[in-house]
Amino acid sequence: MVLDYVLAVFFTGAVIALICLARGAMRMPVPKGEGISLEVIVSAGPGAEKWLERTVDAACWLVENGTLPAEAVVIRDKGLSIEGREIARRLEQRAGVEMEGWTGARNGGQTP
């Protein structure tokens, strides 16, 4: 009787350990081969203002902690509003992201 309980606890622990190992294997960092560089491109269009900062911060966090071995986080303008471009400028200064698809103040903030 006691042996049954001990075996049940042992096998339950073993199953839980296997589940944890499988979960950890799924969350391993993305591999990057020699001569390959990765960039995270966040394409942001009309209406993206609400989630742009959160999305870029999450991508930067993944890069900084080594989960995603990217060399840059890029915001690609696909028709951002003026508010969205201001958010992108702040992110460029604060988080060091790159911006692509518009020239900023040199062109009056217009998309080329």
What does it look like?
This protein has 112 residues and is of the alpha/beta class. The chain has two domains: 1-30; 34-112, no CATH class. Helix content is 49%, strand content 13%. The protein is built from three helices and three strands, in the order αβαβαβ. Strands 1-2-3 form a three-stranded parallel sheet, covered by helices on one side. The longest helix has 25 residues, at 2-26. The radius of gyration is 22 Å and the shape is elongated. The protein starts with a helix and ends in a 12-residue tail after the last strand. The model is unreliable at 105-112 (pLDDT under 50).
Blueprint of the fold:
Blueprint: H1 2-26, E1 39-44, H2 49-64, E2 72-77, H3 82-95, E3 98-100
Parallel strand pairs: 1-2, 2-3
